[in-house]
């Protein structure tokens, strides 16, 4: 377990691993490509021109810094911890996903790549990818599960509007993992001109690291904003986890402040005992998929199980390898909330704060609802408002009708 | 190198022909049909068997082998049943080399050490794990070599001369040359490009080289057989089995075997 002075803010080791998790488990054809990407990223990450360009796009195109907002009515309602929202849903394209896409598109340009591919679940990463491709005039192909296309029609329309080609994926259950398989098949076929823009802190090294780095601006801003407002560090951080990019973005900067508690919230779907959930840490075991070793939902034979969540963005049978490591180290606490708990928190946030959160984000809010009432009024809690819920209107309206 | 692989490549060299390597997916379309095909492949001219271990997420495979894996898993195939098939095959055939091909997770779940022991005991000669590149040799390599199992590596058009030594280190059995950038069963390689790649690899290695991906017909196989040590046919065979059953698969195998002579 953890010791207070351990260094948790670190890069992956020579094998691309955090502890036993992560790695470069890809076919030989892709191996030279991810090594080239790693080299390009290592060159770029410390280069002043690259950093300056990233800063400029974050400020002028994404709209950063995103506000740290005191959720006063929610705080009153729960009568405990002082609750703050880190407003990532106010970013251009309505979620934290754009932070990563801006970083990766600048990297792709440096590498001379002209064609961008991506996988998407809820469509938020797809929209962010289509957005940066439009901005830089790059060809964009997005793989999306047929099931997800059905439940996220608005995002599909947005991507098409910006010139992206959407390829429906019908293999498997037609969700995020299947889209990722197809994107990898595309990449292995189009190795020369194509850059694979992975949307979360998963996949082969260096993706978990570079996505984390591009997202970690969330935590850095939170730190200075909280200092300015309250004069000290937050006591706890709460974020939802599918692959885990918004959570890693919020947590990473704070990992070596032992006084800051961190809670990652997985999707328990119909319940952890139901067999229909997406909680890889709570209900999975370590394995290897999509280039990395991590906790996976799988059967006794090592076949990957389908995940289930009301939110398409959490509907993935794995989790980023750095989360798997932080889980085993005990540095971050991981919990799971059900579809119903998330929906209740969704409605409550709409009514109490006038903010329609994404269903993914609502999982984090459900954990806040559980935890905040038990904490003292001087406890500072930050929840990552990772995305806006406009895309979820059809799902929510359908569920409201069913439950009426 | 396993005795069986070594012996088979030597026999083929003596007969001035390339080795025919046939891929089938274990348990497709069901255990019994798949075992019967497996047992009859050598008689139809297959020199080396690549037995696919079905996986739910075969990222490097095209639609044909994806569908085969789905059929096998739906019919109840597991890692244990695949090893059972190997035992049944070995009971009647002690000379044809058999290599397991697939993805790492089912082995990881089984337990690496237990799986290698069981595979060796069943009569497996080597392993070709698509998503276990040279960089992760430590996962299975040392244990496999202790048992005398070959870890078969892949090289591809993206593997340049600078990277090749890394791929060749600790490789044994044969080198699987992926003829084109892409997934199995889709596209067709340029023979001249592949020939050049093989001669580059041979400057660095004495390993037998089997060429696969996109080889469908006896004519295509014959073109590769001129320069490769072996030729791998997978999707076309899986397709023949699916469309025409064992008789069609064996007919294709005989046709391919006839194309191996140099």
Automatic annotation (TrEMBL), chain A:
Residues 63-387 form the Tryptophan synthase beta chain-like PALP domain. The keyword Cell inner membrane does not apply. Its EC number is 4.2.1.20. Keywords: Amino-acid biosynthesis, Aromatic amino acid biosynthesis, Lyase, Pyridoxal phosphate, Tryptophan biosynthesis. It catalyses: (1S,2R)-1-C-(indol-3-yl)glycerol 3-phosphate + L-serine = D-glyceraldehyde 3-phosphate + L-tryptophan + H2O. Its cofactor is pyridoxal 5'-phosphate. This is tryptophan synthase. It comes from marine sediment metagenome.
Automatic annotation (TrEMBL), chain B:
This is tryptophan synthase. SUPFAM superfamilies: Ribulose-phoshate binding barrel. Keywords: Amino-acid biosynthesis, Aromatic amino acid biosynthesis, Lyase, Tryptophan biosynthesis. One of its GO terms (molecular function) is tryptophan synthase activity. NCBIfam families: trpA. The alpha subunit is responsible for the aldol cleavage of indoleglycerol phosphate to indole and glyceraldehyde 3-phosphate. Pathway: Amino-acid biosynthesis; L-tryptophan biosynthesis; L-tryptophan from chorismate: step 5/5. PROSITE patterns: TRP_SYNTHASE_ALPHA. One of its GO terms (cellular component) is cytosol.
């Amino acid at each position: 377990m953890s010791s207070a002075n351990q260094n948790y803010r670190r890069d992956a080791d020579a094998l691309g691993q955090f502890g036993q998790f992560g790695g470069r488990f890809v076919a030989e054809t892709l191996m030279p490509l991810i090594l080239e990407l790693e080299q390009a990223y290592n060159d770029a990450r410390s280069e002043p021109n690259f950093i300056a360009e990233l800063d400029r796009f974050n400020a002028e195109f994404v709209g950063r810094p995103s506000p740290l907002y005191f959720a006063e009515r929610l705080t009153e309602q729960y009568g405990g911890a002082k609750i703050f929202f880190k407003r990532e849903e106010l970013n251009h394209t309505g979620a934290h996903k754009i932070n990563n896409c801006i970083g990766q598109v600048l990297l792709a340009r440096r590498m001379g790549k002209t064609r961008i591919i991506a996988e998407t679940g809820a469509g938020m990463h797809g929209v962010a990818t289509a957005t940066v491709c439009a901005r830089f005039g790059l060809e964009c192909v997005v793989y999306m599960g047929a099931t997800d296309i059905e439940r996220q029609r608005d995002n599909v329309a947005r991507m098409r509007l910006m010139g992206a080609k959407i390829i429906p994926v019908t293999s498997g259950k037609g969700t995020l993992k299947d889209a990722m398989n197809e994107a990898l098949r595309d990449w292995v076929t189009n190795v020369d001109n194509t850059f694979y823009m992975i949307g979360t802190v998963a996949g082969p090294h260096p993706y978990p690291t570079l996505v984390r780095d591009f997202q970690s601006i969330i935590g850095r801003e939170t730190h200075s904003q909280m200092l300015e407002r309250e004069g000290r560090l937050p006591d706890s951080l709460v974020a939802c986890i599918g692959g885990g990019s918004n959570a890693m973005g919020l947590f990473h900067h704070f990992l070596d402040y032992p006084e800051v508690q961190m809670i990652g919230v997985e999707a328990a779907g119909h319940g952890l005992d139901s067999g229909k959930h997406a909680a890889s840490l709570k209900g999975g075991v370590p394995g290897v998929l999509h280039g990395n070793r991590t906790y996976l939902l799988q059967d006794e034979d090592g076949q990957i199980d389908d995940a289930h969540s009301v939110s398409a963005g959490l509907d993935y049978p794995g989790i980023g390898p750095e989360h798997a490591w932080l889980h085993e180290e005990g540095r971050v606490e991981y919990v799971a909330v059900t579809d119903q708990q998330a929906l209740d928190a969704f409605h409550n946030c709409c009514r109490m704060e006038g903010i329609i959160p994404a269903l993914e984000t609502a999982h984090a809010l459900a954990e806040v609802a559980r935890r905040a009432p038990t904490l003292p009024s001087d406890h500072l809690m930050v929840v990552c408002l990772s995305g806006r819920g406009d895309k979820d209107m059809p799902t929510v309206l359908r569920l409201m009708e069913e439950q009426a | 190198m396993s005795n069986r692989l070594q012996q088979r490549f030597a026999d083929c060299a003596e007969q001035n022909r390339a080795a025919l390597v046939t891929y089938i997916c274990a348990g497709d379309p069901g255990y019994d049909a798949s075992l019967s095909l497996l047992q009859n492949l050598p008689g139809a001219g297959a020199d080396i068997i690549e037995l696919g271990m079905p996986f739910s997420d075969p990222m490097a495979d095209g639609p044909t082998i994806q569908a085969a894996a789905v059929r096998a898993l739906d019919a109840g195939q597991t890692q244990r049943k695949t090893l059972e098939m190997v035992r049944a095959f070995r009971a009647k055939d002690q000379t044809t080399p058999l290599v397991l091909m697939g993805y790492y997770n089912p082995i990881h779940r089984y337990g690496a050490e237990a799986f290698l022991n069981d595979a060796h005991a069943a009569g497996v000669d080597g392993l070709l794990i698509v998503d276990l590149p040279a960089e992760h040799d430590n996962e299975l390599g040392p244990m496999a070599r202790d048992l005398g199992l070959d870890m078969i590596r892949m090289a591809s058009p993206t593997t340049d001369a600078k990277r090749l030594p890394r791929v060749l280190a600790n490789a044994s059995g044969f080198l699987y040359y992926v003829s084109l950038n892409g997934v199995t069963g889709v596209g067709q390689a340029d023979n001249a490009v592949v020939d050049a790649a093989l001669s580059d690899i041979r400057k660095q290695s004495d390993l037998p080289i089997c060429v696969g991906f996109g080889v469908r017909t006896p004519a295509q196989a014959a073109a590769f057989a001129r320069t490769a040590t072996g030729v791998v046919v997978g999707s076309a065979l899986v397709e023949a089995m699916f469309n025409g059953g064992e008789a069609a698969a064996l007919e294709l195998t005989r046709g391919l075997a006839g194309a191996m002579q140099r």
